[in-house]
TrEMBL record:
Residues 55-78 are annotated as: Disordered. Keywords: Membrane, Transmembrane, Transmembrane helix. This is DUF6458 domain-containing protein. Pfam families: DUF6458. It comes from Actinomadura logoneensis. InterPro entries: DUF6458. Residues 1-51 form the DUF6458 domain. The chain crosses the membrane at residues 31-51. It comes from the Bacteria.
Amino acid sequence: MGLGVSVFTLTLGLILKFAIQADAMRHPVDIHIVGVILIIVGGVTFALQLLMTAGAQSRRGDPSDRDRLYKNDRPPPP
């Protein structure tokens, strides 16, 4: 949940900084800038999620590796 909240806060801050025009009364939000900000933040979030998932899988290891370790011997008791 921490990653989602930080991405939401970052996106909201970027929209407030770049997309909302304080002096415009007719069109206060530039929708193209909002779209670009959301695309960038979504891409960065997707990349971070892939990196975290790949890191978690590499730490767990392949279960077949553990089976090969104890092919001729019995594994130690739990």
